[in-house]
Amino acid sequence: MTNIVLFGPPGAGKGTQAEVLKEKYQLIHLSTGDMFRYHMKNDTELGKLAKTYTEKGHLVPDSVTNEMLKDEVNRQLENNPNGFLFDGYPRTKDQAQVLTDFMTEKKTKIAAMVALEVGDEILVGRLLDRGKSSGRADDANEEVIRERIAEYYRKTDVLKEYYQAENKYYGVNGVGSVEEITARLTEVIGKL
Ligand code: ADP
Predict the structure, then answer these.
(1) Domains in the chain: boundaries
(2) Is 3.40.47.40 the CATH number for 4-183?
(3) Distance between CA atoms of 44 and 173, rounded to whole angstroms?
(4) Neighbours of 71 (CB within 10 A)
(5) Is-contact 94 105, C-beta < 8 A?
(6) Which residue has the CA at smallest separation from atom 6 of ligand 1?
(7) Could you identify the atom of ligand 1 that is nearest to the CA of residue 95?
(8) Beta carbon of 5 within 6 Å of any ligand 1 atom
(9) pLDDT tens across 13-69, in order?
(10) What's the CA-to-centroid distance between 109 and ligand 1, angstroms?
């Protein structure tokens, strides 16, 4: 299996690129943001809990997120996938360690973290723009958008170092057309 972590701050384009990459490499796309939105839409207990965090732009606690992610990986493993494309996970050091251990338990590993690098003001602009059509409450409010970016720098950005220490970090310029950015990502993934 080839398992890839697609990384970057909110609005970097992870979801957009994941849609292309999952087809190209036949990977299972796992987005924890999508999973939380599914639960919120269906008003499950998990969704109700997640909403209290997502609406403020804060991360959902690790214990909750880790269990949800592991359940989904276990479910998908029954179909013998080529690999996973993790989008929006891990987002904390604890999550990264849980993922490393979980991959080892499943006799596989993370091949690479591929990061989309985009400046903060471009991110805010993109997210406000997305908010006009996405229907996502967390994209509709600039304060919440800025809090998500702040949360990224508080808790998530440090994961670069975690994967760099394992020689698995690849940064890619995330500014340009969708096709240009896909080409940059495939150059990295093709060499794995
Ligand atoms: P974005 O990257 O645009 O902020 P996501 O769709 O990845 O959006 O996530 C939306 C929200 O879901 C996050 O703001 C956070 O509250 C929650 N979330 C998603 N993934 C995680 C995660 N790995 N750990 C904790 N919370 C998460």
Answers:
(1) 4-183
(2) no
(3) 38
(4) 11
(5) no
(6) 33
(7) 23
(8) no
(9) 999 999 999 999 999 999 999 999 999 999 999 999 999 999 999 999 999 999 999
(10) 23
